[in-house]
């Protein structure tokens, strides 16, 4: 089955998507973790391992347009507060507030540093 | 995890699965990191979920091998899109190969995902077919209903195809949801904001009274676990469905339709059956089950 290509049906711009890489202390323990649910004012965070122990990566997809600066501030604060080096955080967001984003990231890193695989 | 007093209604799909099955026995199939997301939502540039709103996998329940699917009601109302549906269908077809003692469907869904239109409708019909195929291969399928979205639309039909339905009082089961009925037929037909009325018509107690749900349980994950475990023991061997069974079921439904033809509220059904209806909605689950003569 062929699917319509975004470029054909006209590009919709309902989602803001970007990636970011930040310095962070290496996290020795890790496992693949998913926490949170994509629903109004909420988000899900998928944590995976990377090959770069001194930095953490973020891949953000959010329905809140025009808040990239605030996202970056929240993520910088998170990378400084936690040993998140060597981890990649993929986020699907449906308009969570900065506090909720922060909380969900804390929860994700706590789960994945607790469960050793 | 604390298995003691966790509300099934409040829990996410993942928490329900982990709380329901034997500890550390769950192995997710098609997990989030594979990013099997919805191409339809992507083309609408709408938020995606890495699991497309359903968790599927294998596990053990009281030591027996089962397959389990749990819909996430908080992601787009647990709606069935193409990928979401394919995961459930795939799980049911896997049962034909791996022969688990049962497949558990933790339904929490308003039905087809409207954004996915025909693909969602086809997905639902594939799930129905897969349920029937599993059953004819001797594998029972149980529906567990106790989430905020209930089991409506196509997933209401899927639930009724299952061998047993375990519900909490908070769970709801129906075809068209109350808001859909109100939109189409007007508020005089069904006031969807009258919560008590909605539950007296679609909720766990009335569904158990009518025999559609086969077990009413407390809104606790361990209560659902206990009920599912008991069902496994009862379904060691799934007897084949005969034409006579189907005709009898049809007869019972016809009779019921006649008996309750004029009824517009669950309370009137309780009035007819128990010749007393006032206190029923307020009964605890154990008192209600005692009234029905169900084993504790």
SSE inventory with pairings:
The complex is a heterodimer of chains A (117) and B (296).
Chain A (H helix, E strand, L loop, with lengths): L5 H4 L6 E8 L9 E3 L7 E7 L5 E8 L5 H14 L5 E7 L4 H17 L3
Parallel strand pairs in A: 4-5
Antiparallel strand pairs in A: 1-4, 2-3, 3-5
Helix pairs in contact in A: 2-3
Chain B lengths: L12 H8 L6 E3 L9 H5 L10 E8 L2 E8 L10 H17 L3 E6 L9 H20 L4 E5 L7 H9 L2 E5 L9 H8 L9 H8 L1 H6 L5 E3 L3 H14 L8 H17 L6 H9 L10 H8 L4
Parallel strand pairs in B: 3-4, 4-5, 5-6, 6-7
Antiparallel strand pairs in B: 1-2, 2-3
Task: Explain the overall architecture.
- Helix content of chain A is 30%, strand content 28%.
- Chain A has 117 residues and is α+β, with helices and mostly antiparallel strands.
- Chain A has a single domain, classed as Ribosomal Protein S5, domain 2, CATH 3.30.230.
- Chain A has a five-stranded mixed sheet, covered by helices on one side.
- In chain A, strand 4, helix 2 (68-81) and strand 5 (87-93) form a beta-alpha-beta unit.
- The longest helix of chain A has 17 residues, at 98-114.
- The relative contact order of chain A is 0.28.
- Chain B has a domain at 13-173 and 212-239: 2-enoyl-CoA Hydratase, Chain A, domain 1, CATH 3.90.226.
- In chain B, helix 3 (82-98) packs parallel to helix 4 and helix 4 packs parallel to helix 5 (153-161).
- The relative contact order of chain B is 0.11.
- The mean pLDDT of chain B is 94.
- The interface between A and B is medium-sized, with 23 and 19 residues.
